[in-house]
Amino acid sequence: MNRIVTWMIAPWASKLAVAPPSGAPPDRVGYDDAEWARRLSPEQYQVLRHEGTEPAFTSALNEEKRTGAFRCAGCGQALFSSDAKFDSGTGWPSFFQAMPGAVEYKRDFRLIWPRTEYHCARCGGHQGHVFNDGPAPSGKRFCNNGVALTFEPAEA
Q: Catalytic positions, please?
């Protein structure tokens, strides 16, 4: 049966394939749970792999003002430019836009109302939630767990 299905679908397979979005990370990073636990701190592991949330006002990245890139702490994928960072007053690093193709979205129903959660498009690491109360030009607020990020200053 498998051969018949493969033979029937093969001629159309290239037409069925969906290309990744422009700017999407070329290589997915996937480790098993034990490897993620080995590579990450306990706090990073809880947030990135189990969709946890760090306490507000605990990340030094909330106060980061230098020019550079904010990267996924799980895989190093650049997620946000410092140009998109703003002080939301929430206690978490906040951005009004992600880099093209850097994050993927899903609905989160853990609270009474649904929210939009976002993850690193390269490794699937949970970053935070996006809300519609941010500044122009996007009107979005990407509320990110600081422990899920690293910061790479721009070269001088």
A: 143
